[in-house]
Each structure stands twice: as structure tokens, then as C-alpha cells.
């Protein structure tokens, strides 16, 4: 089968590899679509960092509840399934056997059956990738951890694929979304996804937001978010960031700001993701580029250029 061989973001190819053999408790999925995630740009040579994919079940373990031929999305994170965190739907916190699954830029992948996500009847594969992976998973977990209400001001710092997902989900929830992003292409895209204002870094952001979602990981931006949010407001850190110097007295005591974070999404978040999708959340607007699997190096080029949102590969081509 075909699979990605990653050397560097500007040096990727498809290679022939053996089809994976599903182990005990694992399912084999024929991939129909996969999406590129920003974290892949830091992959090591020789890896296949793909972890957002959807396809058709070819083999499923007995008792999994999934049928051969069924279209599914795939979660990149599974837990042991039996500890108290896993049983309460937060496999992200599992310390017994938390595993992250990759190798999904390929014709087939073997993953634990607990990674499979049932998608609504008739969901296209490229939408299934979005609802079962980072694209909607990250912003919906963030929404559940730091809710925003209709009419509330939300500031999103950084409108890469993650920030754009936050824009889409918060705008759908009725928030007034202000975006700060250096790329003109992505500012334009943020407006199409429902942001009311899209600014360049350094421009005045207007009235203090109740919530700031920090997606750049840059220390100066984190400090800016903590300073700009209204007293009693919340800053949600989305994704990894560097260390930053903060005055707890000035920020958390005097201004009573809450600083929290969210990573990926948990089993418990999935019903809400599906509910929003079925309610008409226009997830597909996050996708700006579609490529056939054979065009994988052009796909990475489009992703790295930053003149893109989600970039999706079609493995049926
Ligand atoms: Zn990711
Ligand atoms: Zn567990």
C-alpha cells in the first residue's frame, strides 16, 4: 500500500509499505481522506505523522460494534479503556496506557477499535476527518472547557488551522469573534468563517474580550492575551507554547483572570461535536485545499505556505 515518507515539510514522498496487520482489539481501516495538522511540521525524518483520517472499516474485532464497510472517523488518542479516567470519558488523562496513533497518511491503518468514531449516516469522508480529528475536536473541547455565550466577545490570537477552528465554533455559538493574525489570507478566511473583525498584530483590539483563545504559543502573545482579557475573564491556551513570565498577583489575584488550556479532544466531547455538525456547523469551510494522495508534496507545500486552512488528501484517487 501507499504511505507517506516524511523527511521534512518540503521533502515528502509516497512509498510502498506492507499493509498493517491489526493486532488483538484492533481494526483495519481503508483510509479515504486524511488531513494535515500543524504539529506534523515538527515530525522526525522517517515518520508518518498523519493523525487525522477517516475511511471504511475493513476488519473490526468481534464485539466492537463496528461493521465491515462502515465509514468511520479515527481519533488519534486512546486510553486503556478501564481506568477511572477512561471510564469517565477522558482518555486524555489515562496514565495506564495512553497511546497516540499516527501513520494515517496511508491507504490503510490499524488502530484500536476504541479509536473508531461513528459518523452520522451519509457524512462525506472529508467531513468525517474534520469531526473525528483535531479540526473540530480541538475547538469543541475548548468550547466545553471555556464556554462562550451568544453576543460575548472572544479574541482569537493566531488563525492557523487550529485558530480557524476556534473561530468557526465560537461564531457558530453566537460569539462576536475578533481575530489577530499576520497572514492576510487567513484573516480573510477567518472573516468567511464568521469572525466579525480580523486584525494584523499590533492593531488595537477594541473592547476587552470575556475570553481570549491563544493559539500562537508565543510568550508575548500569551502576555498580551492575559492583559487584554476583561477582569474576571478567561484565557484559554490552545496547543503547545513556550514558557512565559507572568505576575500571578497582578493577573490572577488583582484581575481574577483564569488561565486554562485544552489539548486535543476526549471521548466525552465527541457527542457534542456530532451534535454541532448535525445542527449545521459548516465544518467543510475549514478546508481550503484538496489534493489526491499522489500530490502529497504539493499538499504539504500548500500547507506550509500559510495561504491555506485545512489541507485534505484524497486516498481514493
Ligand atoms: Zn494534530
Ligand atoms: Zn485509562
Automatic annotation (TrEMBL):
<dbReference type="InterPro" id="IPR013154">
    <property type="entry name" value="ADH-like_N"/>
</dbReference>
<feature type="domain" description="Alcohol dehydrogenase-like C-terminal">
    <location>
        <begin position="161"/>
        <end position="278"/>
    </location>
</feature>
<dbReference type="InterPro" id="IPR011032">
    <property type="entry name" value="GroES-like_sf"/>
</dbReference>
<feature type="domain" description="Alcohol dehydrogenase-like N-terminal">
    <location>
        <begin position="23"/>
        <end position="120"/>
    </location>
</feature>
<dbReference type="InterPro" id="IPR050129">
    <property type="entry name" value="Zn_alcohol_dh"/>
</dbReference>
<dbReference type="Pfam" id="PF08240">
    <property type="entry name" value="ADH_N"/>
</dbReference>
<protein>
    <submittedName>
        <fullName>Alcohol dehydrogenase zinc-binding domain protein</fullName>
    </submittedName>
</protein>
<feature type="region of interest" description="Disordered">
    <location>
        <begin position="1"/>
        <end position="24"/>
    </location>
</feature>
<dbReference type="InterPro" id="IPR013149">
    <property type="entry name" value="ADH-like_C"/>
</dbReference>
<dbReference type="InterPro" id="IPR036291">
    <property type="entry name" value="NAD(P)-bd_dom_sf"/>
</dbReference>
<dbReference type="GO" id="GO:0016491">
    <property type="term" value="F:oxidoreductase activity"/>
</dbReference>
<keyword id="KW-0560">Oxidoreductase</keyword>
<dbReference type="Pfam" id="PF00107">
    <property type="entry name" value="ADH_zinc_N"/>
</dbReference>
